[in-house]
Specification:
Structural class of chain B: mainly alpha
Number of domains of chain A: 2
Largest sheet of chain A: 6 strands, mixed
Largest sheet of chain B: none
Order of helices and strands of chain B: HHHHHHHHHHH
Structural class of chain A: alpha+beta
Helix content of chain B: over 70%
Order of helices and strands of chain A: EEEHEEEEHHHEHEHEEHHEEEEEEEEHEE
Shape of chain A: elongated
Oligomer: heterodimer
Shape of chain B: globular
Strand content of chain B: under 5%
CATH architecture of chain B: Orthogonal Bundle
Number of strands of chain B: 0
Radius of gyration of chain B: 20 Å
CATH superfamily of the largest domain in chain A: P-loop containing nucleotide triphosphate hydrolases
Number of helices of chain A: 9
């Protein structure tokens, strides 16, 4: 377990989290949200106003007890955005630089083995300036893993790579992590990357932890408007809380009555925010055999149709609703089949399981 | 040709380089990384000998090192040493005058070593001394080499301060540049010309060797790539 509790003023940090041992935890947030500062604080590169950092029971920092282990005494590996390879050293010497505690011959042998493990053993004598981005990333990874750290910190290590290299390295990271059983903290602004690589997801905004938990759960169920915005839930609307029953909650969105399978509880008459993924707003074709199974049905008018590669984003104005437009993501085939165009009338369905009430 | 003056000049340059370069590296490294409030003032103090006339520097050195000054009195009482009109005084003056040449290039070179390399080294398990010796110093080496060449070359050619602090005592404080001045005063242009040519040659070789070393290093770096 990695316990991280930080408070700081510049940059602003106020978070308290416990990240599971032997798993990949991703910290996701927009630029300037403090992701890198969190990582730097964990690494011992940033001294914060208040800190409590411990890994598997070993305290690395505790401002109350006056404990602060400098970075070089923390058993961790760090890969930064630009890899920070030492430009005056060859690839193998870069890896050997993390093994200064070993005698020369052993250091060299271990460093070469580290490069072999990431698949670039043949480039050992190359200088960093003669390596591609992907190769630099592998050297940085070999260097970070050389000391067999208990914690691996990755600060957007894939952001400067092309798509295919990134995908390949994602797989290799998963393989390495599974093999070594290390605790990994990955900082990224790419939610898709976090979804693919992490088991635990932390959403960070302005130095504050918005939400954290198992990745699929967080992705499925944003806990707040801010978390929903961060995860690109483009449909955000307000509704009146009517009440709850065994199957969930009833909301009134304008004159429309919505049903939501939610654990959130509010007072009758209170205004709550709700959201639904654009891919969860369904287009209902006329004569559907079992319309009631689709959820709440509503009539709408398309106000915008934008083709986005493999999908089409359709914005609709829903009749008798609270007024907020909804976006729905459709397949091009469905748009063509239903003759969807700006100004056309549509019928949509909002399933209770897809309607998310935000705290 | 005044061979004792040449020998004294070289001796002064070697002593100045040997004593000042380590100090220059430490001060330059500290100035490059420190966030202390008075940094601009400290930098200005280091650079001051560059902009002050040698007579002003010489005047203050004479005032503070003279036999009646507290420093002069203490040195005389404890070690029987006089800094004025003596070789140790010349070395002391040379150290102060050359401070900017030893510090500024080193400082700039250390400033060029990015924080992220520093952080990466710390995360590799290197303690601050190892980071300095294995990462920072090799990367800042061109600046250190420049500082060495500038300090050595400038000491060889220093005139004003040396004359004011050391005077013109043959074998004790008469350096090559003062010997040239002395020969001109004595209407002996032949000897002055020979010594000037020698000083020119030594200075040229020193600077050329420095540039050669820098270029060789750059080429080796490119060769690795």
């Amino acid at each position: 377990m990695l316990t991280v509790s930080l408070e700081h003023d510049h940059p602003k940090l106020a978070l308290d989290s416990q990240l599971p041992r032997g798993q990949v935890s991703a910290i996701v947030g927009p630029s300037g949200s403090g992701k890198t500062s969190v990582l730097r604080a964990v690494a011992g590169l940033l001294s914060t106003r208040s800190a409590r950092i411990s890994l598997e029971g070993n305290t690395w920092a505790d401002t109350e007890r006056g404990v602060f282990l400098p970075a070089y005494q923390r058993p961790l590996g760090f890969v930064g955005q630009r890899y920070a390879l030492f430009p005056h050293l060859s690839a193998v010497a870069n890896v050997a630089a993390a093994l200064v505690h070993l005698p020369g011959a052993e250091r060299q042998r271990e460093a070469q083995a580290g490069l072999d493990a990431v698949g670039i053993g043949g480039l050992a004598s190359r200088s960093p300036s003669a390596l591609s981005g992907g190769q630099c990333q592998r050297v940085a990874m070999a260097r970070a893993l050389a000391r067999k750290p208990r914690l691996l910190l990755l600060d957007e290590p894939f952001s400067a790579l092309d798509r295919s290299t990134r995908k390949r390295l994602h797989v290799e990271l998963k393989r390495l992590q599974a093999g070594l059983g290390m605790t990994v903290v990955l900082v990224t602004h790419d939610l898709d990357e976090a979804a693919q690589l992490s088991q635990t997801l932390c959403l960070l905004r302005r130095g504050r932890m918005l939400q954290y938990g198992p990745t699929p759960e967080v992705l499925r169920q944003p806990a707040s408007v801010e978390a929903a915005r961060l995860m690109d839930f483009s449909n955000l609307a307000k509704a009146e809380w009517v009440g709850t029953d065994r199957e969930g909650a009833t909301l009134r969105w304008g004159e429309l009555v919505l049903r939501a399978a939610t654990k959130v509880v509010s007072k009758p008459g209170a205004t709550v925010s709700w959201t639904i993924r654009s891919s969860d707003v369904f287009l209902v074709k006329d004569g559907h055999p079992d319309e009631s199974s689709l959820g709440i049905l509503a009539s709408a008018r398309a106000t915008e149709v934008i083709s986005m590669g493999g999908s089409v984003l359709v914005t609709v104005s829903v009749d008798h609703s609270g007024g907020e437009p909804l976006r729905m993501r459709l397949r091009p085939g469905a748009v063509h089949r239903h003759g969807v165009h700006v100004g056309c009338r549509l019928r949509i369905a909002l399933h209770p399981e897809a309607v998310i009430v935000l705290a | 040709m005044d061979w004792s003056a040449l020998s004294l000049s070289l001796e002064l340059a070697v002593w100045t380089l040997a004593l000042l370069l380590p100090v220059g590296i430490l001060i330059g490294r500290w100035l490059a990384r420190t966030e202390v409030r008075g940094r601009p003032l400290l930098q200005a103090i280091c650079a001051l000998p560059l902009v002050l006339p040698p007579t002003v520097v010489g005047y203050y050195l004479l005032t503070f090192m003279g036999a009646r000054s507290p420093l002069g009195t203490a040195l005389d009482a404890w070690f029987g040493l006089s800094l004025v009109f003596s070789f140790p005084g010349l070395v002391f003056a040379s150290l102060l005058v050359n401070l900017p040449f030893a510090v500024l290039p080193v400082q700039r070179a250390f400033e060029g070593v990015s924080q992220e390399l520093h952080d990466a080294a710390a995360c590799c398990g290197m303690n601050p001394w190892q980071v300095f010796a294995r990462i920072e110093l090799p990367l800042a080496w061109p600046g250190v080499l420049s500082a060495a060449v500038l300090t050595f070359g400038h000491t060889l050619g220093e005139f004003g301060v040396v004359l004011m602090v050391g005077g013109n005592i043959p074998g004790e404080t008469r350096t090559l540049s003062i010997a040239i001045f002395d020969r001109i005063q004595a209407f002996d242009p032949g000897a002055a010309g020979r010594m000037a040519a020698l000083l020119l040659l030594i200075s040229l070789v020193t600077v050329a060797l420095g540039y050669g070393a820098l270029e060789g290093r750059a080429r080796r770096g490119a060769g690795q790539g």
